[in-house]
Design goal:
single chain, mainly beta, 8-stranded mixed beta sheet, two-stranded parallel sheet, 1 helix, about 10% helix, globular
Length: about 140
């Protein structure tokens, strides 16, 4: 099982991070909503260790689901946070407590964002070989 590390940087307009592969090399960029005290559908999820599972979302299609019951995050509940996914999106405003990968940082519609999110999601899913993985989220 592969272990990835997400190194976060918090800003008032969103959370922007570098996703690193097992060897520590930077792989992708990510974007999330800003930290809002773990409020469901508004805040980025808490720092910690998560199980990452391939998931087929009715809304986003093939993506990855995050789970860490000790942090109050499960796929289906009951828990504080459910359906925290890694799915394609570009801007923090397009997310509801999920993580979007990108190949680079940029600006979309005058909003800080990640670019080429669908390509980045596919790269991530191929890297973990469409199998469960671990994700460590920490402040950069």
């Amino acid at each position: 099982m592969k272990t990835l590390t997400l190194h976060r940087n918090y800003f008032p307009h969103g959370t922007f991070s570098i996703l690193c592969a097992e060897n520590g090399n930077p792989m992708l960029k990510t974007v999330e909503r800003e930290w809002a005290n773990n409020t469901p559908n508004i805040s980025c999820i808490p720092e910690g260790v998560y199980d990452v599972t391939p998931h087929d979302s009715p809304r986003f299609g093939k993506c990855l689901a995050l789970s860490a019951p000790s942090l109050g995050v499960t796929i289906y509940g009951p828990s504080l946070r459910t359906h925290c996914l890694i799915h394609a999106a570009n801007k923090p405003s397009q997310l509801q407590g999920c993580i979007a990968p990108g190949l680079d940082f940029g600006v979309v519609d005058n909003e800080w964002a990640v670019l080429s999110s669908r390509d980045a999601l596919l790269e991530l899913m191929n890297y973990i070989d469409h199998k469960p993985a671990k994700l460590i989220i920490r402040k950069a």
